[in-house]
Design brief:
The protein is α+β, with helices and mostly antiparallel strands and 251 residues long. It has one domain: Lipocalin (Beta Barrel), CATH 2.40.128. Helices cover 15% and strands 26% of the residues. The longest helix is centred in the N-terminal third of the chain and has 22 residues. The termini are far apart.
């Protein structure tokens, strides 16, 4: 009788394991995984090249700045119109940071692995790690403030939903003097429009600089079979070196 109970327990355990495989926990979100809602995780892996230009907002509109940040932007543009240099932080080989990371001058590579989506930018060899293993953000007083921030994501159907916080406040949205505060957060909805087209809907929220959230949509085309990320070393080919506290390039 005891042997019979052992067999029943083992069979029940096997049944539970099979049932779990049918729904797949969040940790196993690799391409082809069937999620609890029946959707299948799409294959976004590979090389992606931006379709629009390098301006953060292809339509050209400014963010919904509050009065103080609009004043800063206008002052910087006036300085440029007088022929003064307004330094882009990346001219000193600093990383572009988020959300400028997503309008990189060079291709992006997506890697989908267990519990994580990794995005590698050829520009400055920067890396984003989007954790899809169910973790949350660290507490506000413990999070490391970095160029690309801390990103967590989950799948809603075939859409990768990402939330990023802990972003440095001294980066810009593109080569223009559009800046932001250290209260910036970014929400993204990333999905395949078709097998060769990737869409990223970015909603930027910044209570310190904006009066409302700012939504920007970017699209990318899939690279061909020979597409790859190249090594990028800014320091070996930089032509716009700015000394600390100066607006003029180093002679």
């Amino acid at each position: 009788m005891r042997d019979g109970r052992v067999v029943l327990v083992r069979m029940a355990g096997m049944a539970m394991a099979i049932a779990m495989l049918g729904t797949v926990p969040a940790l196993a979100q690799v391409p082809g995984t069937k999620l609890k809602d029946g959707a299948v995780v799409p294959d976004m892996s590979g090389i992606w090249e931006r379709i629009e230009g390098i301006r953060f907002n292809p339509a050209g509109q400014l963010p919904p700045y509050n009065a103080e940040y609009r004043r800063r932007y206008d002052q910087a543009m006036e300085a440029r119109s007088r022929g003064e240099r307004v330094a882009d932080p990346t001219s000193s080989c600093l990383p572009q940071g988020m959300p400028r990371f997503m309008v990189a001058s060079y291709p992006l590579e997506f890697l989908q692995t267990k519990g994580q989506v990794t995005i590698i930018a050829e520009w400055s060899s920067q890396v984003r790690r989007i954790f899809t293993d169910g973790r949350g953000h660290p507490p506000a007083d413990e999070i490391d403030i970095t160029f690309n921030g801390h990103s967590i994501g989950h799948w809603e159907g075939q859409v990768l939903v990402v939330d990023t916080t802990g972003i440095r406040g001294d980066t810009s949205f593109d080569a223009s003097p559009m800046t932001h505060s250290d209260q910036l957060t970014v929400s993204e909805r990333i999905y395949l429009k078709d097998p060769k087209t990737l869409v990223a809907e970015l909603t930027v929220t910044d209570p310190g600089a904006f009066t409302a959230p700012w939504k920007v949509v970017r699209t990318y085309r899939r690279g061909g079979p020979d597409a790859r990320i190249m090594e990028y070393v800014c320091e070996e080919n930089n032509r716009e070196i700015f000394l600390p506290g100066q607006n003029q390039p180093k002679p």
